[in-house]
Amino acid sequence: MSKNEFIKGRGAQLNVSNKFEAQQHEFRDDFLNYCAAEGDEVQNNNTVLIDTFSKTIVNKVTSPDVGMEYSLNPYQGCEHGCIYCYARNSHEYWGYSAGLDFERKILVKRKAVELLEKKFRSRKWEAKPIILSGNTDCYQPIEKKLKITRQLLETFLKYKHPVGIITKNALLQRDMDILRELAEDDLVSVTLSVTSLSEETRRILEPRTASIKKRLETIEILSRANIPVNVMMAPIIPAINSHEIMPLAKEISERGALSLGYTIVRLNGAIAEIFTDWIKKTMPDRADKVLNQIKNIHGGNLNDSRFGTRMKGEGEFASQVAQQFKLARKKYFSDKERIKLNCKLHESFKDGQMKLF
């Protein structure tokens, strides 16, 4: 594949059809030839922000194998462009493609803080951990400018409410002042996604995320500040990062991480087409091997929606991965313990300040 055919700075290399749309479109060869002859871009690759005005902001998570009860996503779509991201399919509900649209059309929830305060002030609401980034990353690049996540964290602190954060962006370091205050009352835990120790692997899998060096540095900084930090190696992809489990576990443990979790890649919905197109362009020599091994993990399919097996897979490869993680945890994390977030303070701060009576 020539350099001209590859869209730099993006994960997906095409816009797949939206399954909810009655009409589909494609680029005709004569149009592509005309653009090439004139030196014009076939399509605009710039990121576009789209304001949305949701009526609620806290989502109840009903999936039994996700590990959270409530989530909050200030943004929909994610400029990080991780090729494997399960959240891509959610962009179709907004009328966009799970491919390039997911990375280029970012929906912004401008009233996120207002809605969160309304939730906290409700007499019916009882404090339970709310996870920022249950779907898309709350510290994706646009957060540097908009600071919605920072404002949300200030709100969690104001109401003394427990919050979890999942991210793969070192921009989180900007908010260390708030995180320290939250950590003093066991109101925060951070989960950093570290898929590989190889910067080359990171660059092709997750083109607009923080470098591996910055993520490892972030683990160390959080740990030194007594802010509990955990790591997810997600997803494990056969023949791409599956050989890195033990060295990655050792590295993050030495940096101060309290635990290590994982998921195995699954390519549900439109992601199967997006990933297949991508790997044949970026790794043509091992594309078939990777795709076939993914199928072997999920009963002969690239996708897997079965609760209980979809996250970890099944078969010989999945068993080997599970054994490696069991060994890694025993060797590098046996003397560490995850904290339990404090849900007892919020009731006294229902109005954003301490109740005296």
Automatic annotation (TrEMBL):
GO molecular function: iron-sulfur cluster binding; lyase activity; metal ion binding
Domain annotation Radical SAM core: ranges: 64-301
Signal peptide residues on this chain, from the entry's feature table: none
Swiss-Prot/TrEMBL keywords: Iron, Iron-sulfur, Lyase, Metal-binding
InterPro entries found in the cross-reference section: Elp3/MiaA/NifB-like_rSAM, MJ0683-like, rSAM, rSAM_sf
A Pfam short name: Radical_SAM
Protein name: DNA repair photolyase
Organism: Salegentibacter flavus
